[in-house]
Specification:
Two copies of one chain form a homodimer. By secondary structure, chain A is mostly helical. Chain A is 60% helix and 0% strand. Chain A has two domains: 51 residues, Arc Repressor Mutant, subunit A (Orthogonal Bundle), CATH 1.10.10; 142 residues, Tetracycline Repressor, domain 2, CATH 1.10.357. The structure holds a DNA duplex (30 and 30 nucleotides).
DNA sequence: CTCGTGAACTTACGGGCGTTAGCTTATGTC
DNA sequence: GACATAAGCTAACGCCCGTAAGTTCACGAG
């Protein structure tokens, strides 16, 4: 079922000074196109415009080119992911082990609930080699730092509480833990059905965090 | 540098009965386009034809559509990966620990040497939702089974030799190990530079195989 | 030598894309 | 009520894509 609504009716123009609203609508439309299940090829400048109900060139005052729409989407979703993780951390029981599992499972849940978003967030193909686009390396490097920092913090708490055999390299251990989570999250996002037991997630966490 | 050779000169026609040769040439051209560093969007039916030096419609006798070229590429590369792993296994010292590290590192090396290939092999976006294409679910499910089986075998050897705390679920443990490897391999294939220590790979293997 | 046929070609259609240039119209101030 | 301007529109450009239809040409069997 391809829902190409086309949206006739020329759209109620935004009030003076509220032109910026359109920027948000554009990002949301791009996310919606992703969620609808097609791959990221479905997110073109024109398809986004159609979804919002505006003419294609009306995007240019808000985004310099198509890749920068994608960058905005990824940045927004990274922020969203960070919020989800923080919330999970705060709602968890105050002991380090519970916090670690809460955060890691929240991560996995996010990926499961929004596979398409997860794919472009970490799939790395939305940047056509960083030539010809307005995207800088700094833009890319800063992605996901906040979320990762939270993971480091929670794993660090486990070491401090003595429930994990911390090596002398907390950062490296955190990277390894994240890579495991990412492997599972990505694979789930990509294939229809994952083989393996249901508790793979917990096994990964336990093994990679070196929980006692 | 975009090498669009265009290749005038109408190509030496294949001998009778050797039409199948072209099929291989098409797959190799597609792989070459990938390796040249563009993303998979660079692999279009027409660009492949240009690379081979044939007219675009000449592909149809060999592949029913563009996605099936991609499927053939992935199948070929999966076979190639399996060979690489088997070779690494056979050339390793005969003890289980050495075999495990040899196979896992060979996996990681493959991904590092051919990041673009790895991306489409496991990136899962080359199938436009399996509608409108000639690709079946069986095609997809059978991918990579041979390579994974080898991993199960090698990890099993570790448990048998008593150098790994095997749980009662060898298959599940193997999935977890593979997911860790995949997370690292994929991330390396996707970003310019991976943060974290150089020995993340070994850490992942040690932790996920539960080596003593 | 003929001639069927497999292998690949030429031409062409219709469609989607990103982007540029210039126009229209609602808004809210004076 | 006039009018400056922000907000968005229409039209059009050139490009590349996938695919259909019909054509040419060399191989090799008879």
């Amino acid at each position: 079922m391809v829902t190409t609504v086309t949206n006739t009716e020329p759209r109620r123009r935004n009030r003076r000074g509220e032109g910026g609203k359109l920027r948000e609508e554009i990002i949301e439309a791009a996310v919606a196109l992703l969620d609808e299940g097609g791959d990221e090829r479905a997110v073109t400048l024109r398809s986004v415009a159609r979804k919002v109900g505006i003419a294609a060139p009306s995007i240019y005052p808000h985004f310099s080119d198509q890749p920068s729409i994608m960058l905005a989407v990824v940045q927004r979703e990274m922020d969203s992911l960070t919020s989800v993780l923080r919330e999970a951390d705060e709602n968890a029981a105050p002991d380090a082990r519970a916090r670690l599992f809460a955060v890691c499972n929240a991560y996995l849940d996010f990926a499961r609930q929004h596979p398409q978003r997860y794919r472009i967030m970490f799939g790395g193909l939305w940047t056509p080699s960083t030539e010809d686009t307005s995207i800088t390396d700094a833009d890319l490097d800063s992605l996901g730092v906040a979320a990762f920092t939270l993971l480091v913090e929670v794993l660090g708490a486990c070491v401090e509480e003595g429930i994990a055999h911390g090596s002398d390299d907390l950062f490296g251990d955190s990277v390894a833990l994240w890579l495991g989570l990412h492997g599972l999250a990505h694979q789930r996002a990509v294939v229809r059905k994952m083989p393996g037991p249901d508790d793979v997630g917990d096994r990964l966490i336990t093994a990679l965090a070196h929980l006692k």
